[in-house]
Automatic annotation (TrEMBL):
GO annotation, cellular component aspect: cytosol; succinate-CoA ligase complex (ADP-forming)
Gene Ontology BP term (one): tricarboxylic acid cycle
InterPro entries per record: AllG-like, CoA-bd, OXTCase_su_AllG_h-dom, SUCC_ACL_C, Succinyl-CoA_synth-like
Gene3D superfamilies: conserved protein of unknown function from Enterococcus faecalis V583, Enterococcus faecalis V583 domain, NAD(P)-binding Rossmann-like Domain, Succinyl-CoA synthetase domains, v583 domain like
Protein name, per record: FdrA domain-containing protein
Domain (CoA-binding) ranges: 190-285
ATP-citrate synthase/succinyl-CoA ligase C-terminal domain segment(s): 342-495
Molecular function terms from GO: succinate-CoA ligase (ADP-forming) activity; succinate-CoA ligase (GDP-forming) activity
Phylogenetic lineage: Bacteria, Bacillati, Bacillota, Bacilli, Lactobacillales
Pfam families linked: AllG, CoA_binding, Ligase_CoA
């Protein structure tokens, strides 16, 4: 039975999740589990293992999928706490670091402005685009990330070459830059040898042997295993050779390659023959019979290291470096007993396969289903092959796959020797020896029970300076009866001796090079700067890679990367394309945000809606509603209830039944408030004779309108339409509206709303759910004016009493203010700033500056929050109302931190949650509006300019404070809470924006 939990927007590094999966799989009640991010590639892995549940199929790449196969119903009661402990432990480790983590390239480059390298360990499907950004920011790239398409590798390496940068990788497992160990790497003494390697463990084997021989390495430049393929053409290898040729502290160059394409190999050799420095090279799979010109050609990795050390010490290169290994004092194995090689390093596996195949005249190396050698019962397996690491940690980190293979081969009666490597260093398992020894003991016991001998032969790749310590690792293996050799080549030699097979090496002389040489290209200043200083690295991905860099004197900035646009490939393509327009977009957006910040809203009048909205004066009966366009049939209960109430208020019908018949007949035209410079709360229904506030934005000369707040209880905006509701609407029309209008006439310019809002935000308002201070400040401004009017005293009292009792009265003024601000900002502007957010109970609609009056919509969400007694979330209507205009201009939930008194009412837990909310909203905005300063936010201004690019890129959608209406017409408000705008409308807006710029968005 599959049990699934999806943790939304909880991005974790894949290696950590692999280790976490192993922890959960160890539970006795778990048959199998997998914890992964919700990428398409990971879903394929789940599908292949029959773990893809319907819930997992819906996950996004930023969601963590927890899928457990168990027969126990309550298994997640144990699993989820264990996951929390594991992730909390990661957080605890992270929190101990003083280093500030970035969440974007901009932040990373601000933290480390002089960075010169980007180190990648992110999923390969996103790697190419991110590496291109690094290169375009003049950063050398070190890509531990693999599974990058060969076409992308070629493109990126050509770009790096053109820009004078090094593209190290993809699939570059190890490196040393200016003696700083990087990624999966050993601690090697500094020295005068420079290494260029299209092989990770090849570099590790050569450099650690150099260290143990007393030599040292200044640089080990990894290139990725495909660099010497015919398609890539050794772009990075050649650039690195030229760089080391020009690097004065490098006296000797060592080139290491997996089996290369012949023509590429010849080009590399031609370059090596053209430089001035001595060179040793090993092209795995070749068995050179002589050295050639100034290039010394090695057969094994150990020989390459030995030659490099002699050259570095100005000693004569020997004709033969082969050293016979003493045969272990045990009986020779029978001819039917075979060697099985289980390697965590692909190059070490290739070397072992090559040597065994040469000694036994087997079929040679293969690369199939993880096998490097698969001939006559002799197997050498690269456990780091994709077939073993898909969805699992690399075998250098996790011993599980190797333990399984040890158990499998121990059962095979023909297995006489199991040959394996232990790779030490940063990134590798803390104690691989300790992890493997129990399996080795168990395998020996199985063989002994079957009256067989089973030998284990090991090589340890490491130095005494590695965290696991080379000498200690060797001692423990030997004490356990493992035959440990000084190198991989000697380990293979030992294994063959146990079979009674001796190998040797021919002497090599130096033959003249008769080929052509080339003019050595010049080296870029950027590459020489990299090789001449300690690296300054932006670490994009696995945080543990910082450890070795910082330990040995490098600098890092941690970039906690997550997939752009939630992994949506189409949106990523658009965002990447828009990066080229950054200057234009920034200029356009600046115009919009300046207009928003510099707006001058004044409350000037209260008038019947029909007097300022011509559409309400036309012959056809017209009702304005909240949100983007909608029909009567599509409307949810509260909006339909509001329509019924408006029909009764306008006396178009005498009762509810007549009103419904009229609305269903098609005689009434429905129009969004936003189409006529108006806004309306909740249902938003506005009719001809309803009074509206008039707010003038004197910066642009535009006006905006909003009906007056009805107070609390049964009200039209929540869909109520009883006689009590109609009577109040009549009173607002006949008394409240005219009284305020008369009072405003006594002012010279109206009421300056910027001043009133700025004062009220310091008093604890956020202007959507909490308007107490603003309503009282409005009462303070309007009351003396009301008293001066010639209106009947009893009506004055009624109005002042109503204003004093209505804590939310200012909301409608704020809505008209927001509308005036954004309509001014929308005039003759372009860019990606959101200029409207609104909802009609069915769809959420946004507008942006670039696309003017066009709507970009997606289905609304239902608010979460607190419900009045007797009501639950089941009663709540989907999100509705134009009041999100407040969030559009940066107040409301965007300014939650300003109103700690309201946080729990809208579902937040308290001030810390409010602070977190506002901080999160700031991430999707272009800046802050200093006009409205918030004391509880270190006097930062409210959020300014929601940017659709940031929303789509981060997946953070605007949060909105809102009242909750009952889904049935006539019931009214049943609670209050918060709701998220749906991501889809911002994605649609981004696509429309891209099309306006001529960007193809297939």
């Amino acid at each position: 039975m599959l049990h699934t939990v999806i943790m939304k927007n909880n991005y974790q590094d894949s290696i950590n999740l692999m280790l976490l999966t192993n922890t959960i799989n160890a539970f006795s009640e778990v048959n199998m589990s997998q914890i992964m991010m919700g990428t398409d590639a990971n879903k394929d892995i789940l599908k292949n293992t029959n773990l893809l549940s319907p819930e997992a199929e819906t996950a996004s790449p930023n969601d963590m999928m927890i899928v457990v196969d168990s027969d126990e119903e309550e298994v997640m009661d144990r699993v989820l706490p264990a996951i929390d402990v594991f992730l909390d432990d990661l957080s605890a480790k992270d929190s101990g670091k003083e280093q500030q983590a970035a969440t974007s390239w901009k932040e990373a480059l601000e933290i480390l402005p002089d960075a010169n390298v980007a180190l990648f360990s992110i999923p390969g499907e996103y790697g190419a685009a991110e590496m291109e950004k690094a290169l375009k920011n003049d950063l050398h790239v070190f890509s531990f990330t693999d599974n990058v398409a060969i076409e992308d590798e070629i493109r990126l390496k050509k770009l790096a070459h053109e820009k004078g940068l090094l593209m190290m990788g993809p699939d570059c497992g190890t490196g040393i830059i200016s003696s700083i160990p990087i990624a999966f790497t050993n601690v090697v003494s500094p020295g005068n040898i420079g290494v260029v390697g299209a092989s990770g463990t090849g570099i590790q084997e050569v450099t650690t042997i150099i260290d143990r021989l007393g030599g040292g390495v200044v640089h080990a430049i990894g290139t990725g295993g495909r660099d010497l393929s015919d398609k890539v053409g050794a772009i990075t290898v050649k650039d690195a050779i030229v760089a080391l040729e020009n690097h004065e502290p490098t006296d000797v160059i060592c080139v290491i390659s997996k089996p290369p394409a012949k023509e590429v190999r010849d080009e590399v050799v031609q370059l090596l023959q053209s430089i001035t420095k001595p060179v040793v090279a090993i092209f795995l799979g070749e068995k050179p019979k002589a050295h050639e010109g100034k290039v010394y050609l090695a057969h094994t990795l150990e020989e390459a290291a030995q030659i490099a050390v002699d050259l570095a010490n100005d000693e004569t290169v020997k004709k033969n470096y082969f050293e016979a290994v003493e045969k272990p004092n045990v009986p020779t194995l029978a001819t039917d007993k075979v060697v099985k090689g289980l390697y965590s390093g692909g190059t070490l596996a290739a070397e072992a396969g090559m040597m065994i195949s040469e000694a036994l005249n087997l079929e040679g190396l293969v690369k199939k289903e993880g096998y490097i050698l698969h001939s006559n019962g002799y197997d050498v397996i690269d456990l780091g092959d994709d077939i073993y690491t898909q969805g699992k940690p690399h075998p250098m980190i996790d011993p599980e796959v190797r333990i399984q293979k040890i158990q499998e081969y121990a059962q095979d009666k023909n297995t006489g020797i199991i040959l394996f490597d232990v790779v030490l260093g940063y990134g590798a398992h803390d104690d691989m020896v300790g992890a493997l020894l129990p399996a080795i003991e168990e395998a020996r016991a199985i063989a002994k029970e079957d009256h067989r001998e089973l030998y284990f032969v090991s090589t340890v790749c490491g130095t005494t300076k590695d965290p696991q310590n080379y000498d200690e690792s060797v001692r423990r293996l030997k004490e356990a009866g493992v035959l440990v050799a000084e190198s991989n080549a000697k380990a293979v030699q030992t294994a063959l001796l146990l079979k009674g097979i001796e190998i040797s090496e021919n002497e090599k002389t130096v033959l003249p090079y008769n080929g052509k040489t080339v003019d050595v290209p010049s080296v870029s200043e950027k590459v020489m700067e990299l090789l001449s200083t300690k690296p300054r690295i932006i670490n994009v991905g696995l945080q543990s890679f910082n450890e070795s860099i910082l330990q040995y004197g490098g600098e890092t900035a941690q970039f906690n990367w997550r997939p752009r646009a939630g992994g949506n490939k189409k949106m990523i393509k658009i965002l990447d394309a828009l990066d080229a327009y950054e200057e234009k977009i920034s200029k356009d957006n600046q115009v919009v945000t300046d207009k928003m910040k510099n707006a001058q809203p004044f409350l000037t009048d209260v008038v019947p809606a029909k007097s300022v909205i011509p559409e309400l004066n036309e012959a056809q009966k017209t009702l304005l509603h909240a949100g983007p366009p909608i029909t009567w049939k599509e409307m949810t209960g509260p909006m339909q209830g509001s329509c019924i109430g408006a029909v009764l208020f306008e006396r178009w019908a005498n009762n509810e039944q007549e009103a419904i018949r009229l609305l269903e007949s098609g005689e009434v035209r429905f129009m969004p408030c936003h189409h006529v410079q108006a806004v309306g709360p909740m249902g938003g229904i506005t009719s001809a004779n309803m009074p509206v506030f008039v707010v003038e934005n004197r910066l642009d000369g535009n006006q905006a309108y909003c009906i007056l707040n009805e107070g609390i209880g049964k009200v039209l905006r929540f869909g109520a339409y009883s006689q009590e509701v109609i009577d109040r609407l009549d009173w607002i029309k006949d008394v409240l509206g005219p009284t305020i209008a008369e009072a405003l006439k006594l002012t010279e310019e109206g009421i300056n709303l910027n001043v009133l809002i700025a004062r009220s935000i310091t008093m604890g308002d956020e202007f959507h759910q909490r308007n107490i201070a603003a309503s009282l400040n409005f009462l303070k401004e309007i009351s003396p004016l009301i008293i001066q009017t010639k209106i009947d005293e009893s009506k004055k009292y009624e109005v002042i009493k109503f204003l004093a009792d209505t804590d939310q009265f200012f909301l409608n003024i704020m809505m008209a203010t927001g509308k005036a601000i954004v309509d001014g900002a929308r005039k003759e502007t372009n860019g990606t700033v959101v200029t409207t957010m609104t909802r009609n109970g069915v769809n959420f609609g946004v507008r942006i500056a670039e696309t003017g009056d066009d709507w970009h919509t997606a289905p609304v969400n239902t608010p979460k929050g607190l419900y009045f007694t007797g009501f639950t979330e089941e009663d709540g209507n989907p999100d509705i109302g134009d009041s999100a205009i407040t969030e559009t201009v940066g107040v409301g939930a965007m300014a939650m931190v300003a109103a700690p008194g309201v946080t729990r009412f809208v579902g937040a837990g308290g001030f810390e949650d409010a602070l977190e909310t506002s901080n999160e909203m700031a991430k999707i905005c272009l800046g802050h509006n200093s006009t409205f300063s918030i004391p509880t936010w270190d006097f930062q201004g409210t959020c300014l300019g929601i940017d659709i690019r940031k929303v789509v890129e981060t997946g953070i959608t605007p949060i909105i404070n809102t009242g909750i209406a009952h889904k049935q017409a006539g019931v009214g408000q049943v609670g209050a809470g918060t709701v998220r705008a749906p991501l889809g409308c911002f994605e649609n807006a981004l696509e429309a924006y891209a099309k306006k710029l001529g960007i193809q968005v297939d």
